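Progress report, Aim 2. The chain analyzed during this reporting quarter is listed below.
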Amino acid sequence: MPDTWLIVGLGNPGPRYEPTRHNVGQQVIDEIARRRGETFRAHKANARVAETWLRPGGPKLVLAKPNSFMNVSGGPVSGLAKFYGVDADHIVIVHDELDIPFDTIKLKIGGGNGGHNGVRDVAKALGTPDFARVRVGIGRPVGRQDPADWVLDPFGAGERANLPILVGDAADAVEQLVGDGLVAAQQKHHAPRP
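Predicted structure tokens for the chain:
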């Protein structure tokens, strides 16, 4: 059996949410699939999946985008983990993070959910918080805007100019995490950008 990793981008379903900050995790998954010429297909676990390889010969990557709303992402993630026989230590969740500035990526395994309801639901469904997270910084709103509204807004014009770089860097971080481990990925992607 090949070394299999489940890589999940959290977000909300439908075209209304595709360009929003909350869906940046799914944009990263799209980029990883695009690099390999893969397309997504429907899966019975209420998700869209693309199966590919990190590099020829392995590890195998199951790229997934739940069809559920963000706050109930756990069911699809748990269903996919069972279907592919993947334990929590081979699951990577890619998600937006309010408490990290825009254009910044942080990686960790386990710990709290930082108030992120999607991550909370995944941990509950898996029965453990001990999975890897690639946290893509979206920053907090300036002024009095409710963070719940902020995450559902599209990226601003200035952000959109840098978004392809951020998404590409986050895709690189996922690939390095799987290929080289957490510490190597942290050492590269936690460093300030030149």
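Residues 4-189 form a domain with the Rossmann fold fold (CATH 3.40.50.1470). The chain has six helices and seven strands. These observations will guide the mutagenesis work planned for the next reporting period.
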